[in-house]
Design a protein that fits this description.
By secondary structure, the protein is an alpha/beta fold. Helix content is 57%, strand content 9%. It contains 25 helices and eleven strands. Strand 8, helix 9 and strand 9 form a beta-alpha-beta unit. Helix 13 crosses helix 18 and helix 16 packs across helix 22. The radius of gyration is 42 Å and the shape is elongated.
């Protein structure tokens, strides 16, 4: 990366002197060293590392605060000051020097990135920090004027100061938050700055130094609102009140901010601190003069009387930040190591997905063969219901568990299909005269007495050579074919559901084992056409299974038919008998035993009712029997059809053929044109592989450094 190295002993040593208080002990130093090593290796691009960020509204005193802490003179003019994030990296080295570079944002083009990385060539003569900032503004194009001029940048200026006594830590000066646009800054700039600041705040290991100015209304300074939303426990947020000398002593405003500093208003676990920074009139003060003025101000003020001494002044702030930083690093290092390990695991998995770089036909063919072998194995496991592979792991609340576990998905789909066929497979619900319909639409049900009239008319239409009082068996076939009309629509819809489930599972599996480019090409060029063919075969099989039920007279050798007819008629006879008995004597066959005597007259009346009510009528019986046989045959045929659809169609025609859709045999038989079409890499894949290899190398070195530190210090990893 482009960087400049200018030996500037005065500036580097000045930085070291003011920040040396951050080093507390040998253990502190070791911890800071490992964080510094991780940061210098680029780990912070992938894992959040401990740092101090100074954020607040425009002109709240952020840059002055950072100057007080670091000893570097950040620009502190009124109005627009900080136009971009400035990371100040303090490192310990035998050589005192300043290194400067610009880290381009992700939105920059490659040409712009190359240009910005050469920033050091223009900075090599700079020996003043303020000039470095101004030079960076020029390089980043932030010096223009007018409504179209660029005001803020998401690029980062990284300034690294080293000396023999410097600590290893990072402090970041961020652009000030604001809510109203003007001629110099637009509404888009409002969002840009807010996104930038909030992005740094969200880095879970950053210590947030939330700066609020006492000479401005607290409600107009949103920094603490963001801090509380992002760090609700307040464990890494320290509130800082600046410009206490800018408000009248004894005023309501002073009392408000004193109460705030006492942690009685906006409560933060780390509490609040008060700092008096340089003003425009004292901008040329030396560090010693600045601290003397601050001490004099607090010595005779209400702030001193209301607050603890450790809450006042820059010296105490350094101590507080040192302790907070130490605690943050000490507590977060095991989590940093875990994040590094997870990052490495993720890199390895993604690189495995991408495969090795492939430019020749042989390399592409080999890659496709490996994918086909893995895909075929996983599809086989999916349809066998063997979910041992990590791909099938199911978490509570996971939305795509069924999409991955194809057998479970198919089982659920077929169960729903069977239920739907039972509930909605018959065109009409035939309701016994003493019962109520379950369907709400009158066109979907018919009372049995009305249905028997339909049967009677059909028997006349189907009259053949049968004797009077009997019926043509073809009547049953006609009644059945009318009832099973919905089967076709419900079953064809099942075919679409099964095909969709298979396609989704294939898509999920390919997403797991190869890159998006290859997945898209395979799905479009090979798998979807194969699945479409299987769906066609499935639908043809379904038509074949349905055809006999629509065109051939009823045939069954299942004893269930006669048993079903017997049960239908027996249940109806029992209900009719009990109704007549209840009418005659007030009792049914289910009535409990009683000592009450029944008179002879009542008994005779009941017997006459039963005799008349159960007297056979050959013609009526024939019509009723035809209806009952048709109903029983429907139940027999429905059970068989559901099983045939599940086994002979869905399972045999589609599910069991899925492992062969993209198996090694298919891969080896691909033509050179197909291999080129399906196995070629796009530019995105090449770029992703390069970035992942870089990330893996950085995180691998980081893990080695962390392991070495753990072994050295005896700290648990």
């Amino acid at each position: 990366m482009g960087e400049a190295s200018t030996t500037v002993l005065g500036l580097a040593e000045q930085i070291s002197q003011k920040t040396a208080g951050f080093i507390h002990s040998k253990k502190h130093t070791d911890l800071l060293d490992i964080v510094d090593a991780l940061r210098s290796n680029g780990v912070s691009h992938y894992v959040d590392l401990p740092q101090i960020i100074v954020c607040g509204s425009q002109s709240s005193g952020k840059s002055s605060t950072l100057e007080s802490l670091s000893g570097i003179e950040f620009p502190t003019a009124e109005g627009l000051c900080t136009r971009f994030a400035t990371e100040l990296i303090l490192r310990r080295s035998e050589k005192s020097e300043i290194k400067v570079q610009i880290q381009p944002s992700a939105s920059r083009t490659e040409e712009q990135r190359v240009k910005l990385l050469k920033f050091h060539e223009k900075e090599s003569e700079q020996k003043n920090f303020a000039k470095i900032i101004e030079a960076a503004k020029v390089e980043l194009g932030l010096t223009g004027t007018g409504p179209d001029a660029k005001v803020f940048s998401t690029d980062v200026l990284r300034i690294e100061s080293t000396s023999s006594t410097a600590p290893n830590l990072t402090m970041v000066d961020l652009p000030g938050l604001f809510s109203a646009s003007d001629k110099n800054q637009s509404d888009d700039d409002v969002n840009l700055v807010q996104d930038l600041v909030v992005g740094y705040m969200k880095q879970k290991r950053s210590i947030i130094l939330a700066v609020v100015a006492a000479d401005s209304a607290f409600a107009n300074q949103p920094v603490t609102k963001f801090a509380r939303e992002i760090d609700p426990s307040g464990t890494r947020t320290l509130g800082l009140i600046t410009k206490p000398d800018k408000i009248d002593r004894g005023s309501d405003t002073e009392r408000y901010y004193i109460e705030l500093a006492q942690n009685e208003n906006v409560k933060l676990s780390l509490g609040w601190h008060v700092l008096r920074n340089k003003s425009h009139a004292t901008a040329d003060d030396t560090t010693k003069q600045r601290e003397e003025r601050e001490a004099a101000f607090f010595s005779d003020s209400d702030w001193k009387q209301a607050l603890k001494p450790e809450q006042l002044g820059v010296a105490n702030l350094r101590e507080r930040l040192r302790d907070v930083l130490w605690k943050q690093i000490n507590e977060s290092l095991p989590a940093v190591k875990y994040d590094v390990q997870m990052g490495l695991k993720d890199c390895t998995a993604k690189l495995h997905q991408l495969g090795k770089a492939r430019s020749t036909n042989r390399e592409k063919h080999t890659y496709l063969h490996k994918i086909s072998s893995r895909a075929s194995t996983m599809v086989k496991a999916a349809i066998d219901g063997v979910y041992a592979d990590p791909f099938f792991v199911s978490f509570p609340g996971q939305q795509d568990a069924f999409e991955r576990r194809l057998r479970a998905n198919i089982q659920k789909t077929l169960t729903n299909y069977a239920d739907k066929m039972v509930l909605h497979g018959h065109a009409l619900e035939i309701v016994e005269d003493d019962d109520k319909p379950t369907r709400h639409s009158s066109s979907k049900f018919m009372m049995r007495c009305d249905y028997l009239e339909v049967v009677r008319e059909l028997m006349v239409e189907c009259r053949g050579r049968e004797l009077p009082g009997t019926f043509n068996p073809l009547v049953v076939g006609d009644l059945f074919s009318r009832q099973c009309k919905p089967w076709e629509h419900i079953t064809q819809n099942l075919a679409e559901q099964v095909h969709e489930a298979a396609a989704i599972t294939f898509n999920k599996i390919l997403s797991e084992i190869c890159d998006d480019n290859t997945r898209t090409r395979l799905m479009k060029g090979l798998i979807q056409p194969s699945l479409h063919k299987l769906r066609k075969d499935l639908k043809e099989k379904l038509d074949e299974l349905l055809e006999p039920h629509l065109s051939i007279h009823p045939i069954t050798y299942n004893d269930y038919l006669t048993e079903a007819v017997q049960k239908i008629q027996g249940d109806r006879h029992d209900r009719a008998f009990d109704a007549l008995s209840l009418e005659g004597c007030g009792y049914t066959s289910e009535s409990p035993r009683t000592s009450k005597d029944v008179s002879l007259a009542t008994l005779l009346h009941t017997l006459r009712l039963l005799k008349d009510g159960t007297r056979p009528n050959v013609e009526e019986y024939s019509v009723s029997l035809a209806a009952d046989v048709a109903a029983a045959y429907y139940q027999v045929a429905l059970k068989k059809f559901i099983d045939d659809v599940s086994v002979n169609a869905v399972e045999a025609c589609l599910i069991q053929n899925l492992p062969r859709v993209f198996c090694p045999d298919v891969a080896w038989e691909l033509t050179d044109e197909q291999v080129e079409l399906l196995g070629s890499e796009d530019d995105r894949t090449v770029k992703d592989r390069a970035e992942l290899q870089k990330k893996k190398a950085i995180l691998g070195q980081a893990l080695s450094d962390l392991d070495a530190f753990t072994a050295r210090s005896g700290t648990r990893g």
